[in-house]
Design goal:
Chain lengths: 251, 200
């Protein structure tokens, strides 16, 4: 299977921001413009995460989503502050193909995963996990690494799979935004633990980081943010490099 | 005379928006079809589909579209996308056993493969029977997002390989086409497929 290369937009409306280690934000552009740019560079998917919707307890901005979706002819995943089946429904109607859920499922109502999967299909339900490393385990965090949940990542991934999630977006609180490589051990363990696709985010600092991650952990996809936002590399560069190194990616 | 492509709107999920956009990008005119009257007025039909086989059939019944759609498919060029192709079959096995539209003699079963499910991402199609829908798109990559597959051995036009398992990625019978992948999510190749459908 070809490894998906996904562009991830962390949005604090109206801007895409680059959280550094989940704190300190730098504005890098508008979601519509960046989504289009990465689509044209050959991204396999775009993921749009409103990183403050949950924290500020407000709904995600549907206008923004619709405008961004309009420019894309690839899958578009959207998350941030999703709480109800109605939220899922609104996002799909605004143009999302997948809806990403984290805080509400981890902290309050895991059943929302089952309900959403039965109504919209497993493929449309993505569970976002923010993992924080402790001595010999990883803990699920929420709200961009601000709030602890007490849940063990390795148990939670199994649970969300059983509940019907179609995919996991795995982020690392420790590695996010630092551009110093992925938490490969975490990635590898989660990929091996579940039978649903796992997309790994947090940590790409070089092309080699991405290659190492794919070779060792074999994820279904890699989500890239900083590396793209600072125009360090384009999606095209990343794919060309991976192909040269014998890793299968889409053209 | 310009033709109107009717996009069947059913269910609460509905990826009608993105399919409409892609058909328009390919130069087609789209009419969203919510009931039998609207179905009468269109020249071609596209059946989208997101969700489960069982829910999709129930929604068609609720909207009183099931029988009219079966009728219309007999004469109008039709394209089923993903679940929209699967429900053309006789039987589906998602959340129990459900009767499909029964316009192709096939069943829909879980993919049996030693790899991650859902099968998600870009994958290549291999055209096994040359046809107008996939003309010029042989060996292109399309986006797949599914856990079930059509088990049908008679009207296949394309196959796709997932972790060594070959499954049906496109079918064709008379004026009816079905694709397991999402052309509306498959960049220029997908737009090309809609262009071919418009030209049928």
């Amino acid at each position: 299977m070809k490894t998906r290369i996904i562009a991830k937009l962390d949005v604090k409306p109206p801007f895409v921001v680059k959280p550094v280690h989940f704190e300190g934000l730098r504005q890098v552009g508008k979601p519509t413009e960046l989504a289009k740019k990465y689509y044209e560079q050959g991204a396999d998917e775009i993921m749009y995460i409103d990183i403050v919707a949950s924290l500020y307890q407000r709904e995600i901005l549907l206008n923004e989503i619709e405008q961004t979706a309009n420019e894309l002819f690839i899958p578009f995943g959207v998350g941030g502050g999703v709480k109800t089946i109605d939220d899922f429904s609104k996002l799909f109607h605004a143009g999302a193909d997948k809806v990403v859920i984290n805080t509400h499922a981890v902290q309050e109502n895991p059943d929302i995963i089952n309900q959403a999967a039965e109504i919209f299909g497993n493929q449309a339900v993505v569970v976002n996990i923010e993992a924080k490393r402790w001595d010999n385990w990883w803990e699920c965090y929420t709200d961009c690494g601000r709030i602890q949940s007490g849940r063990n990542v390795m148990e939670w991934v199994k649970e969300v799979e059983q509940r019907g999630a179609g995919e996991i977006l795995l982020q690392s609180v420790d590695h996010d935004g630092r551009r110093k490589g992925f938490d490969i051990e975490l990635a590898q363990q989660v990929v091996e633990k579940v039978n649903i696709p796992v997309v790994i985010a947090s940590g790409a600092g070089s092309l080699e980081d991405i290659k190492n991650l794919i070779e060792i952990a074999k994820p279904s996809g890699v989500a890239i943010a900083s590396l793209l936002h600072y125009d360090q590399f384009t999606i095209k560069d990343i794919k060309a490099y991976l192909m040269c190194n014998g890793i299968e990616v889409s053209k | 005379m310009s033709q109107i492509i009717g996009l069947i709107n059913y269910g609460i999920a509905g990826n009608t928006h993105s399919i409409k956009k892609a058909i328009e990008k390919a130069g087609g005119s789209v009419q969203i079809v919510n009931n039998a009257d609207e179905l009468q007025k269109v020249d071609k039909i596209v059946i989208p589909g997101v969700g489960s086989f069982k829910d999709a059939m129930q929604e068609l019944k609720n909207d009183a579209l099931l029988e009219p759609l079966k009728q219309a498919i007999q004469s109008k060029p039709t394209l089923g996308i993903c679940l929209g192709m699967q429900i053309l079959s006789t039987l589906g096995f998602e959340y129990g056993k459900t009767q499909g539209l029964n316009v192709i003699q096939a069943e829909v079963k879980p993919m049996l493969v030693d790899a991650k499910i859902p099968h998600m991402g870009f994958n290549q199609i291999h055209v096994v029977n040359p046809n107008k829908l996939l003309a010029g798109l042989e060996n292109e990559e399309f986006y797949f997002m599914h856990s079930y597959e059509v088990v049908n051995y008679t009207d296949i036009i394309a196959l796709t390989d997932y972790a060594g398992h070959k499954f049906v990625s496109a079918i064709h019978k008379n004026n009816l086409y079905g694709v397991q992948f999402h052309p509306e999510k498959s960049r220029e190749a997908g737009i090309g497929l809609f262009k071919n459908f418009i030209a049928l």
